[in-house]
Amino acid sequence: MGKPVTPLLAADCVLFDEQRRVLLIRRANPPFANAYALPGGFVDVGEKVETACRRELKEETGAEAGTLSLVGVYSDPGRDPRGHVCSVVFAGLSTAQPVRGGDDVAAAEWITDWRACELAFDHGRILEDAERLVFGD
Prior knowledge:
- With about 140 residues, this protein is of the alpha+beta class.
- The protein has one domain: Nucleoside Triphosphate Pyrophosphohydrolase.
- Helix content is about 20%, strand content about 30%.
- The protein is built from 2 helices and 7 strands.
- The chain has helices at about 50-60, 125-135, and strands spanning about 10-15, 20-25, 35, 40, 70-75, 85-95, 105-110.
- The protein is globular and about 55 Å long.
- The N and C termini lie far apart (about 50 Å).
């Protein structure tokens, strides 16, 4: 029997600071080049999803997260134009820390009003869910 064809697995991180700003990246590559997005990426074989979340956060922004809570699993087959990608999303609070764009991102920055940004994928919905989880809004 051959290997089943299944969705790809990703992990994303929502990191808020004490001023309720959120850490976002600007995507350097398509899809959604130059749009804001959550730090995140594909889970490596043999890697836990929370480990992938922390790794991608560090690689893309230079930031580190403390305690993370599960926001949810986002699995709509149309959420990524490249194909069916399921993302496991974690969120946490952090003190504001210096960030820099790394890996495959154009920039990383703390954003005060994420609702005014052009967001990639379904990251607006994810941010709403994470904000409710973290702040109880």
